Amino acid sequence: QVQLVESGGGLVQAGGSLRLSCAASGTIFRIDEMGWYRQAPGKQRELVAAISRGGNTQYADSVKGRFTISRDNAKNTVHLQMNSLKPEDTAVYYCNLAAGVAQISYWGQGTQVTVSS
């Protein structure tokens, strides 16, 4: 079983920064893709950023140039540096990873990010 623990959410003014972290623990054979998703009230969950085991990244158009995803394969952690935050970035952010031969998807419990105008 794999557990994901997120940290770093909070309340910040527009233009500010936050850094989200996610640590995976448990019986982990191999973690391939890691990523961050978010869900705002009344909206569907959407991909924010993802990073492959080899370091290839992808970002939602809305966060390109402002957010940076990184990972530490030795520590099974993934981070999301969020700069120039906007009120529309307000959402619950979820850590996600795919692990094992079957590429099972695991989710964190979510961390709230609120950006005030």
Structure description:
With 117 residues, this protein is mainly beta. The chain has no helices and 11 strands.
Return the structural class.
mainly beta
Largest sheet: 7 strands, mixed
Helical percent range? under 10%
Cα end-to-end separation: 40 Å
By DSSP (H or I, 4+ residues per run), the number of helices equals: 0
Share in β-strands: over 45%
Shape: globular
Write the layout of secondary structure elements.
Blueprint: E1 2-7, E2 10-13, E3 18-26, E4 31-39, E5 46-51, E6 57-59, E7 67-72, E8 77-82, E9 91-99, E10 104-107, E11 111-116
Parallel strand pairs: 2-11
Antiparallel strand pairs: 1-3, 3-8, 4-5, 4-9, 5-6, 7-8, 9-10, 9-11
Kindly summarize this structure in a few lines.
This protein has about 120 residues and is mostly beta strands. The protein has no helices and 11 strands. The protein has strands at about 1-5, 10-15, 20-25, 30-40, 45-50, 55-60, 65-70, 75-80, 90-100, 105, 110-115.
